[in-house]
Design a protein that fits this description.
By secondary structure, this protein is an alpha/beta fold. The chain folds into two domains: 1-30; 31-146, Rhodanese-like domain (Oxidized Rhodanese, domain 1, 3-Layer(aba) Sandwich). The protein is built from six helices and seven strands, in the order αβαβαββαβαβαβ. The longest helix is centred in the N-terminal third of the chain and has 25 residues, at 3-27. InterPro entries: Rhodanese-like_dom (IPR001763), Rhodanese-like_dom_sf (IPR036873).
Length: 150
């Protein structure tokens, strides 16, 4: 086989391997310094007013599955995400806030970002709405949802 074909093939294989590794890295959870709870615990604590539960997924995801009963929907991509969150907790950065997403990856990353930003009582719900390696998730556990009105 000509050298140019082998070099091109090697470049394509290396590029695909690197892209795949990057995707796997992004899908993995990072070390998180805070607390983690199950969807069952999150639902119960939110229902008793002991935590503020925030669903950080996108509006199209809320439309597809609903939002967990007792949760507030704030799209983590919103420029004013932190300001909206501060408003929910009356600007008390030590208030207990639990974050949930689809499968626990985004909530893990945002939980750590909020701790780094000065929030001191951030809780991750690593199972998410759809389930993850941490467990079956909100929906599979049969927990109630509310229809997204947006």
């Amino acid at each position: 086989m000509p050298q140019a074909v082998l070099s091109r093939r090697k470049l394509v294989i290396t590029t695909l391997a690197a892209a795949g590794a990057g995707g796997i890295w992004y899908m993995n959870r990072l070390p998180f310094e805070g607390q983690a709870i199950s969807p069952v615990e999150a639902h119960a604590l939110a229902g008793r007013g002991e935590i503020t539960l925030v669903d950080i997924r996108r509006p199209d995801e809320w439309r597809a599955t609903g939002i967990g009963e007792g949760a507030w929907g704030i799209d983590m991509r919103d420029e004013d995400f932190i300001a909206q969150l501060e408003g929910l907790v009356d600007y008390q950065r030590d208030a207990p806030v639990a974050l949930i997403c689809a499968r626990g990856v985004r909530s893990n990353r945002m939980s750590q970002r909020l701790l780094d930003a000065g929030f001191t009582n951030i809780i991750d719900v690593p199972e998410g709405m759809l389930g993850s390696s941490s467990g079956p998730g909100w929906l599979s556990r049969g927990l109630p949802t509310e229809t997204y009105q947006g």
